[in-house]
TrEMBL record:
Any single GO BP term: protein transport
Record keywords: Chaperone, Cytoplasm, Protein transport, Translocation, Transport
Gene Ontology CC annotation, any one: cytoplasm
Subunit structure of this chain's protein: Homotetramer, a dimer of dimers. One homotetramer interacts with 1 SecA dimer.
Protein name in UniProt: Protein-export protein SecB
Function: One of the proteins required for the normal export of preproteins out of the cell cytoplasm. It is a molecular chaperone that binds to a subset of precursor proteins, maintaining them in a translocation-competent state. It also specifically binds to its receptor SecA.
Gene from which this protein is expressed: secB
Length: 168
């Protein structure tokens, strides 16, 4: 019996929606920016950086079973006690993913946690490259736990829905 099902699946007899499909189609930089507003003066001071980091993810369906997922990373580094901006680096790293055969909940999790995990190393490299080209010391961003970020976002959404339900 199992052999027959495997043979049918291999022959393509099963409906496409029953088969899990996940394929990375393309990875690309959607937007990039680097500013060093206080150069060259910043290079003549001792470098005592303070790093501020913002991270955001988005996703949208762009075709049948085709989704764009993007990560926006903004790193603002200030220097010294007066906290003047040494540099500001922003990268929006994106990818196209072909995904099929998942429930709505599984798809949301895949787009909100798994796909950003795939994209983050590329965004991290792009930020480091920009900082290096700006003649600053390397900025190696630590790995990000997108699973935890996804869980926190879902928890916030549930709390907001609960608050709205009690308000009515």
């Amino acid at each position: 019996m199992a052999e027959e099902q495997n043979a049918q699946a291999a022959a393509g007899d099963q409906p496409a929606q029953d088969q899990l499909q996940f394929a990375l189609q393309r990875i690309y930089v959607k937007d990039v920016s680097f500013e060093a507003p206080n150069s060259p003066a910043v290079f003549s001071q001792p470098f005592q950086p303070k790093v501020g980091l913002e991270l955001d993810t988005e996703h949208q369906q762009v075709g049948e079973e085709l989704f764009e997922v993007s990560i926006k990373v903004t790193a603002q580094v200030t220097n010294g006690e007066d906290q003047t901006t040494a540099f500001l680096a922003e990268v929006e790293q994106a990818g196209l993913f072909r995904i099929a055969g998942l429930s709505a909940e599984q798809l949301d999790h895949t787009l909100g946690a798994f796909c950003p995990n795939v994209l983050f190393p590329y965004a991290r490299e792009a930020i480091d490259n920009l900082v290096n080209r700006g003649s600053f010391p390397p900025l190696m961003l630590a790995p990000v736990n997108f699973e935890a970020m996804y869980a926190q976002r879902k928890q916030r959404e549930a709390q907001q829905q609960g608050a709205e339900a009690t308000a009515h």
